[in-house]
Structure formats: C-alpha cells, structure tokens
Amino acid sequence: MNTGPGHPRFGSRRIRLVTVAGAVGIAVAATALLGGFRPQLYSVTPDEPGDQRSELVTTQIVGIRTFERPEGITVDEDVEYGTQADGAVLTLDVCSPPIATAPTDLADPADPAPTGTASATETAAALRPAVISIHGGSWARGDKGNRDWRMVCTWLASEGFVAYSVNYRLVPDAVFPAALDDVALAVEWARAAANAQTYGIDPDRIGVFGGSAGGNLAALLGTRGSGSLTDGARVAAVAELSAPLDLSYQALVRGRAPAGLQNIVLDYLGCDTLRNCAKAAAASPASTLDSSDPPVFLGTSTEEYIPLAQATGYAAALERTGIDHELVTVPGTLHSIGILDAAMREKVSAFLHGALGE
C-alpha cells in the first residue's frame, strides 16, 4: 500500500485506449455487428517505471532487502496464465528451487526395482508445495518483477516452494473484483494438471502470500468459495503482511483511518463514498469467512499506515470462526515486505510449511 498521492496516470494505457477508441469507434461498431466484439489485447504490466516500484518506498536495506539469493534458483519470466474478457493478458514469473540430484546407482540385476527408479509414492513425495505471490501498491501500481518482489519470489523458492509471482489488473483500468478474479485464475492455472506437472508442484498444496494491497487479495483468496482446499481457486494457506482487511465505512471512516487510505480504497472499489459502497463488504475478507477456510498468518507493524486494528480485528474474526491463525506484530512504522526481515521470514516460512506440508 503506497502512501503517496493519487495517480491519474496521464499518458497511461487507459488514456491511449480511449484515444484509439474515439478514432476507430465506427469501425469497431461495424466489426461487432458483423462478427462479435473482440477486445484489443493489452498487457497489465504498468506503463511507467515509477508505477512498477514496490510499496516499500524507503531506500533503506530493510525487510526483504536483507535476503541474499542462493545459487541454483531458476526464474521463468512472463509466463502467460490467462486472458480476461476485456483483453487483459495476464502473466506471472515462476521461481523454482534448486533441482535435487536423483540417485543413479543401479541395484542387483535380479532386483525388479532398480535403485534409480522412483516409485509412484516417491514421485508424489517429490512434488513441491506452491505459493502464489501477490505484490502490493495500492491496487494501482507495482509489478511482479520489481526488485523487491523478485526477492520475495526467490526467497520463497529458497524455502522449497515453487513460487508464482503474479501481475493483475490495476486501478484505474479495472476496479474490484477484477484483481481478485485475476489472482484466482492464477491459482486455477497453477493447479491445472499440465502446468502442475511442468513445474513439479503438488496441486493439493497451494498457498498464497501477499503484502499490502496484495495481502488483501491473498486474504480474499482464502475466503473465496468454501469446502475443499484442493479444488478450483481454493488455497490451503494464507500469509499476508500489512493488509487492509476491513474496507467498510465503520472500519475506515468511523475508525479514523488515514484519509489517503480511504481514497485508495474508494478508487479500488470504484465507489464515490464508503457509506453506500456495496462492494466494500465483498472486498473485506471478514465478511465472507467460513469455517472451511484455510489457516492465516498476519504480520504488521504497530505504528504503520494501515491501522493495527485491521490485523487485530481480522484475527478476532478468525478466532470466532474457528480458523487457525497466527498474528505477529513488530514495533515501528515499516510497511508490508519492509518487515520481512530474517526473523519474519522464518516465521512466515514455518507457517507455510506447517500448513502446506514439508
């Protein structure tokens, strides 16, 4: 969640598309009548370098920036995971752990199962858990491949997860629930048999990690749907840092959240006022919790931009619903992956391994 001013994105993709649409409106209408409307494809990658920066706006070496990438991690960039009805082409990066060397010794020729041959059980055990990684940036900026979130992706891989760092549609080009639909599609894509096989993941062990606005989307993935955590877009674990979790009038206006945060939320929801914003409840994870939802890890600073009550209130809702959860607070004002230092990384990793299995 970036605390900076508004971002009209003059010269952005949105304005360019409007200009083009105005110039060729008659041709588009004729084409639609003849053969059905075909939206112009566009990338959701932010147009300007400034829009690609992470929500960690400090220049200090804090949080995830203290991570040192080990050897052997591979990154597969800009893998397409879907195209939405409005023409948005969605991509992700895949960060994979080092490949373990398989045994090559041959057993006695009389042995029907040579040492180098893996059984079906061994093959299943070799499949890795996966984590969908969702960047922050006020739902309006940020990028899966910026320096900070690339470090998140490779850190998750260093912990033994196959990490999928995703891009999703951003404000003002799209408002809620577009971004949620995108990250849900990423889970479904990763779970699909062919894609799971390509990256060696267990489709029954998919978790999600997000920070700031991405933490909101991660938490919403955890409450999307009900029942089995191994089907469709369901995830088996949620870990988030500094997420706005209650977007209601009561929480933000009466709770005296910063005016800047209220405006960011209004842009995300596409509403003029929080008092009568019907989308606020659907975009607040506590409103859609049920007892079948996965365990949740919450991390936050005590004095940061997102009020502490967002995390403590959600922890209380999880408690009432009977959902396992862990709340970790740290002193100070650092936000999102700014608090993802070695100590926090250890806690998040332990949580994800506990929920997804070793």
From TrEMBL:
A GO MF label: hydrolase activity
Where does the sequence pass through the membrane?
Answer: 17-37
Outline the segment boundaries, as ranges, of region: Disordered.
101-120
Residue intervals of the BD-FAE-like domain: 126-312
Extract the SUPFAM superfamilies matched here. alpha/beta-Hydrolases (SSF53474)
Show the Pfam families listed in the entry. BD-FAE (PF20434)
Is the keyword Disulfide bond in the record? Answer: no
**Which keywords are on file for this protein?**
Hydrolase, Membrane, Transmembrane, Transmembrane helix
Q: Does the keyword Transmembrane helix apply?
A: yes
Q: What is the name of this protein?
A: Alpha/beta hydrolase
**Species name for this entry?**
Cryobacterium cryoconiti
